[in-house]
# Entry
Amino acid sequence: VMIDDKLSQWAVGGRFGKGNNGRLPPNTPFSKRGAGGDLTEEQEAMVTKLLQERSAAQRDKQFGKADRIRDRLQEEFKVRIDDRSREWHVVSEKYANASPFNLDDDVQTLIEEKIVQRAVAKLEKDYDTADAIRDELAEKYNVDIDDRLREWIVIGMVPSSSATGDVDIDDSVFEVDESNFEDEQDENEIVDSGEAVDNDVDLTSLTIPELKVRLKEAGLPVSGRKAELIERLTS
# Structure
């Protein structure tokens, strides 16, 4: 198991290990991202088979064949391929929950409804409303939306019930058993004259307004999504 604290993700098999320029080795199997559209199990199996054939064609330098397979995947299954990350996803209006937590049903339903409202606003070119919904999801529920992969993920800890006016949320929202965790001293925390540099895990527990306060204190830009604010603070 390898852990990526910045993404709040863990993976078996070391998929976080990347080669030059962030590219995964060409023998790494492709993994599926996003909601997956309306593909059946048989269609997904065919996509996997075609991806394997395309990888073999690339290894044999049969680039024309590889391109024809790529085009078939796009035209027949609406599949887009990312060779750098060895991932594929279906172009779809649906968004998948990629959070590593088990959410309360009411909270997940509310988040999904707001994501649908945002998608409708974008289709109607009402970008102000779409941005407002995105910011509300980020501030109240720590939700980060990936429009390219059609995924949404909850970053960090559960927001307090006082920060959410739609649904009462408590610690039971994220059913994470922390009884096996031990307190650890953060070796990366540096205290100087009352100031501390937090690591990524600490920062993900903050709300967007709290992150913006830290950015202002550091003289850094305060625009962008929560993940961008955290990256700016830790760079």
